[in-house]
Amino acid sequence: MLQVSLYRYNPESDDAPHMQEFSVDTGGKDLMVLDVLELIKADYDGSVTYRRSCREGVCGSDGLNINGKNGLACITPLSETVKGGKLVIRPLPGLPVIRDLVVDMSLFYAQYEKVQPYLQNPSPAPAIERLQSPEERAQLDGLYECILCACCSTSCPSFWWNPDRFIGPAGLLQAYRFLADSRDTATEARLSKLDDPFSVFRCHGIQNCVNVCPKGLNPTKAIGHIRTMLLNRAT
Amino acid sequence: MLTAGHVNFGVLFLDRQPPTNCNQLSAHLYCAPMRFWHTPNPPAVNETNLRAIVRPTSKDTRPVNLDLGTIQLPVTAYASIAHRVTGVLMFFASFLLLWALDRSLASEASFEALGALLSSPVAKFLMWGIASALTYHALAGVKHLVMDAGIGETMRGGVLGARLVFVAALIAAISWGVAIW
Amino acid sequence: MVTSVTSFSRTGLSDWLIQRVTSIILLAYFLLIAYQLMGSVDYTSWARLFEQTWMKVFTLLAALSLAAHSWIGLWSVFTDYLTERMLGPKGNVIRLVCQLGASLALVGYVIWVVVIVWS
Question: Rounded to an integer, what distance in angstroms lies between the CA atom of residue A114 and that of residue B62?
Fold first, then answer.
């Protein structure tokens, strides 16, 4: 039996969140954490609320704090996270909880929107596509794969304390994704918006983001690249 | 316009105008599947409206899961926390260091008096604490500089760096202890 | 662009760069002091060291570095924890008081060093 401890909060009836315990029979199988949540919802308590969609680590809906570490429930096997038969599932840290494991991601999205995560190039779009060399395209590897699950930003202390001013690892990874794109011509405008003491420079290289990214991406490195670009621009 | 791949944003921006710099015929065929296009007036998120959306107010009574005891941190995070703590300590310790510098240079008599004072157990412990904190802060700072140079920005590199800093600081703290007592 | 009037140099990049440059000056200064303190120190050699012009300049430089380095570091500590988000409506007042106190202390440190070394 797996001892599961779930963070519960119902805004209509609860003043404060509490932890609810479940004993779940996993049938000795190495399930994914999401499977356990589905089991609980089906067999124990139908009111348990969480986000999920693709169940294969592509949509980024089920980012949760699993045994203290942010990750996607659907691709985190029990064997990887459970020690001593206990599974503690809490919502992503630092964002307001709407209900149970569902957090309000407005802040996260607002920071993402601030980096203007779309290609900017005023020249008329060619009929087929804007060409890139394989080398130029390779610059985007490790950047474009982000699925915006928010595991990184909500594990980052700088984002916990200043979510309205520090863009956060996810937003900055995307900022660099467009700074590094050979087709994008707004580099100067993008950089000038980042050179303040908060947007980029709140990053202190803590690396919690790298530690949790379910896609194995490295925001710390991207932020380092942005700093180098800012430095080169200024000197 | 944002990438259509992200449903959350797709909904947010459904009411936006279609791209204006694609010609009408090709817009449907090419722009939409390409997912990126230029808008002359991108969504303006600035500090003022961002804070208006998200600024916590006393009206927002929703809980936030930020119970630090439940969050598992990598060794790099502990290295960072220790860097910050020792930094703040050094701000206060600077007062004592400046005072000691002042006493040591005022006169030969005050130099001797300082020497006598610093041989008391409490002063020795303080000296050891300040020296160890400063050494840790300096070593963690060197790690920062190394990472600024692009070395050790991977998780493995960061963990190795943090462990090296902790081990070196521990050895330094022991050495300071031996030197002081 | 997030504006902030209480940061050391107003832009993130120069704050960051000043933090790095001052850290190297401070590291060099403390290594020198540690080297001097190894073994036994007597008043005559210690006082003679601080009588030399280069050491006076270096000490002053270290004091200025300490002030800038601490300002930037403490400012980021204050703006992390002493905010309206963390402390409620009084957060900004508390932070400004702490920032003012720290700034005054740092200016005091620099003046003190000038008095110690140049008098």
Answer: 25
Q: Nearest 10 degrees: CA dihedral of A220, A162, A65, B13?
A: -90
Q: What is d(CA C2, CA C44) in angstroms, rounded to the nearest whole number?
A: 53
The CATH code belonging to domain B75-180 is: 1.20.1300.10
> Does residue C85 lie within any of the structural domains?
yes
Rounded CA separation A191/A179 (Å): 8
Cross-chain Cβ contact C109/B101 below 8 Å:
no
Nearest CB partner across the interface for B87, out of C24, C73, C84: C73
- Between residues 53 and 92 of chain C, which touch chain A (CB distance below 8 Å)? 75-76, 79-81, 83, 85-86
- Interface pTM, i.e. ipTM: 0.93
Would residue C81 count as lying in a domain? yes
Highest mean pLDDT among A144-158, B55-69, C38-52: A144-158
Domain assignment present for C5: no
Q: What is the mean pLDDT of chain A?
A: 96
Taking only the tens place, the pLDDT of each residue in A82-124 is 999 999 999 999 999 999 999 999 999 999 999 999 999 999 9
Q: Inspect the interface and report whether the beta carbons of B94 and C66 lie closer than 8 Å.
A: yes
CATH number assigned to the domain comprising residue C43? 1.20.1300.10
Q: Which residues pair with A63 in a beta bridge?
A: A72
B39 CB near a chain A CB, below 8 Å? yes
Name, in order, each residue with C-beta under 8 angstroms of B157's C-beta and a sequence gap of 6 or more: B151
> pLDDT band at residue B47, thresholds of 50, 70 and 90?
low
Q: Please indicate whether, in this complex, the C-beta atoms of B58 and C88 are within 8 angstroms of each other.
A: yes
Contact B160, B120 (CB under 8 A): no
How many domains in chain C? 1
The answer, as to whether pTM is greater than 0.90, is: no
Is the model's pLDDT at B21 over the cut of 80? no
Q: With cut-offs at 50, 70 and 90, classify the pLDDT of residue C10.
A: confident
Backbone angles phi, psi at A8, to 5 degrees: -120, 135
Question: Does B98 sit within 8 Å of C20, measured CB to CB?
Answer: no
Domain assignment of residue C7, yes or no = no
Q: Give the domain range for residue C20.
A: 12-118
Q: Which amino acid is at C66?
A: L
Are the CB atoms for C6 and C96 separated by under 8 Å?
yes
Task: Give the residues across from A103 on adjacent strands.
Answer: A97
